[in-house]
Each structure stands twice: as C-alpha cells, then as structure tokens.
Design goal:
Elements (H helix, E strand, L loop, with lengths): L19 H31 L7 H19 L7 H17 L3 H29 L4 H25 L4 H18 L22 H24 L4 H25 L5 H21 L2 H27 L3 H29 L4 H24 L5
Helix pairs in contact: 1-4, 1-5, 1-6, 2-4, 2-11, 3-4, 3-6, 4-5, 4-11, 5-8, 5-10, 7-8, 7-10, 7-11, 7-12, 8-10, 9-10, 9-12, 10-11
C-alpha cells in the first residue's frame, strides 16, 4: 500500500472534497465570482440612490480592481501575511461597507477593501490547492475555478431573489466570507524574502497567459456587442452570453475530472488553439455556435497555465502572484487595446480579429513548447 501524499508542510494531504481547505476555498471562490457580477446589477440601483452621472458608477469597478492589483503587487514583492484568513477578513469588511452603503465614498472604500481580499485569495487558494492536494492538485485547481464561474452565473439570480436590494445581498456576502474565514485553518508561514522574485527567461512564459486572457477578456467584454452588430437581437445576444458562461463553467468542471491525465502545458496549448478555432468558426460559419463553444476552451486556459507555470517557476509564493498579475494585465489591457481597432473596423469584426491573434499565439507557443518541455521543473 502506498503512503498518503504529503503537503509541503509535511502533514498528510487533505482528504479531497471533505477537507476544510476545499470547503473554505470553494466558498471563497464562489464569493469572488459573485462580486463582479453583483457590481454590474447593483450599479443602476446605486446610481439612482446617489444621483451619479453617466459612467460614474464604473469608478467602483476601478477601485475594486485597484485593490486587487495592489494586493497582487504586494504578493510579488513578498510582503508577509498574505494568506487566506486575512484576505477573507478583507472581503468581509469590504462587503460590510458595500452593505451599509451610506455614502458613495463608503461604497468605493468597501469595493477597494474587497478588492484587496480578491487579489490575495486568488493567489493563495490556487497555490494551496495545487500544493496541498498532492496528486489531485491540478484537478482541484480546475474545480475551484469552476466554482468561481458558478458564483458569476448565480449572483444576478440571487440579487433578483433578494428583491434587487444591494444591502441584503452584500450582508449575505459578508456573512459567507466570515463563515469561510472560520473554516480556514491558519496557514503555515512561508518565508518568501522581501523583494522581487528571481528574474530569468522562464518568466517570459507569462506572456502566453497574458495573450490567453486577452482572448478571454475580449470575448466576454465585446462578444454581445459583436453578436448584435452581426444581426442578433439584444435579447438573443444576452441569452448566448448566458450559454457562453454555462459552457465556461462546464469546461472548468470537465477539466477537473480529467486534468490528472493531461499534461498541463499541452492542455493550455489546446485551450488557446480551441479558442482560436471557435473564433474562426464564429467569424466565418456560425457566430452563435462559435461564440458559445469558445467559452469552454477559454475556461481551461488559466487553470492549466497555473499548474504548468508552477512547475517551471517553482513554489515561491511570489511566482503565483506574478502569474495572477499577468492575467490581470491581460484582462485590463486587452479590451483597451482592442477598442480603437473595433472602432475602425466595427464590432462585427471581433471574431476574425481574435482568430488571427489566437492563431499567432498558437503558432508561437507550438514552436517553443518542445524546448520548454525540456526544462527541468523547479
């Protein structure tokens, strides 16, 4: 009989879905998936309550993302104490501020504090799941990221069930975040030194994640507008976006079931190639089918890359933060860079533009992957 796998700290790896780590991590990621979607449905209510000008509500999203980026940068620099419990406390406090909602300034502060928690949780949960679940780690990373998608899908429905009242929903978020914090066991201190992680050519693989997240963010950000410009009605485009996210969650849950049999580097390559093929399908054959199917392939890119990159970059917590930073940059800069291009060619050109970009990314990754596979793990 083989011995049970051990966690890096030397103890026995958690017992799968029955462990406190899975319960707290899954609940944490469900909440993180909820928050951005809740902002979207709550902003019209807050705009009316505070008499905000058009576009001013987007400041809340900016402050939330700023908090996340600040937390990730702190992780890259090796700031100590960035673990699940403090980050869940941050999400709890931020949600309380959003629930109170006494002033617009308090809402912005609440969003910023919740964003700090998002940045730390995204790194620490992925890292702990990969390291502490032993051989099941890659599948558990995919599974918990699928739970994130469930939070994004269900949160607007929860908002409607609560009578479209932001305070009720954010009090519930605060309570669930406090519950997740209570379930989380103290994390052993990991002595990453202060300062930037070791720099080297291996960090260039982060450019591939940047490109993959650009594809994902542009599909999510402009997919509905592109479908409308291609002749779909707004209600039909909205339905296709919903099905896209269903495919997205299904892709991550499916990856969780089979990831132990698939090399993560080839899985990531398949994700990029799959998105490329689907955007080409959307551009030249069927916009509806191509867009919806792209969700399943876009979903598996980040979990597969995270597993692959940790093997190449090593277990240093700062490297996990660097991976998330590359993803955040791709999600932020991709839509910004594409906006003037779509302004020139029309939003109906989204799919063929992404198919060309994806094809270049796929070719470069395919050419370099044999050499990358020969590098020893750290």
């Amino acid at each position: 009989m083989t011995s049970a796998p051990t966690a890096p700290s030397g103890g026995t790896a958690p017992a799968g879905l029955a462990s406190r780590l899975f319960a707290s991590g899954a609940l944490s990621f469900f909440l993180l998936g909820m928050l951005p979607a809740l902002y979207g449905v709550a902003l019209p209510v807050w705009s009316d309550s505070f008499g905000l000008a058009d576009g001013q509500g987007g400041t809340l999203l900016a402050t939330y993302n700023a908090g996340a980026v600040l937390a990730v940068v702190a992780g890259i620099l090796g700031v100590p104490g960035l673990s699940m419990r403090p980050s869940l406390a941050s999400v709890t406090l931020g949600a309380v501020g959003l629930a109170l909602g006494a002033t617009w300034g308090l809402l912005l502060l609440g969003g910023f504090v919740a964003g700090l928690g998002y940045g730390v949780l995204s790194v620490s949960v992925n890292r702990r799941f990969l390291q502490e679940f032993g051989a099941r780690g890659p599948g558990m990373v995919a599974l918990v990221n699928g739970v994130y998608g469930l939070g994004s899908i269900l949160s607007p429905l929860i908002f409607l069930w609560a009578g479209s009242a932001p305070p009720a929903v954010f009090w519930a978020v605060a309570g669930l975040a406090a519950l997740a914090m209570a379930l989380t066991r103290p994390e052993p201190f990991r002595g990453a030194p202060l300062g930037l992680p070791p720099l080297g050519p291996r960090l260039l693989i982060l450019l591939f994640l940047f490109g993959a997240i650009v594809l994902e963010a542009d599909l999510i950000g402009y997919g509905a507008s592109a479908l409308v410009d291609l002749g779909f009605s707004e209600p039909n485009a909205a339905r296709l976006v919903s099905v896209f996210f269903v495919a997205f969650v299904a892709g991550r849950l499916g990856l969780a079931a089979v990831s132990h049999r698939l090399p993560p580097d080839l899985t990531f390559l398949g994700a990029v190639a799959g998105v490329t093929a689907c955007t080409a399908l959307a551009a030249f054959v069927s916009p509806a089918w191509g867009f919806v199917l792209s969700g399943a392939f876009a979903a598996i890119g980040f979990p597969a890359f995270f597993v692959w990159s940790m093997r190449l970059l090593g277990p240093d917590p700062r490297m996990g933060a660097a991976v998330l930073c590359a993803g955040l940059l791709g999600g932020t800069l991709g839509p910004i860079a594409l906006r003037p291009i779509l302004g020139a060619v029309g939003e109906e050109g989204l799919f063929w533009i992404l198919s060309v970009f994806g094809a270049v990314l796929t070719i470069v990754l395919s050419a370099l992957l044999p050499r990358l596979r020969r590098l020893p793990p750290r």
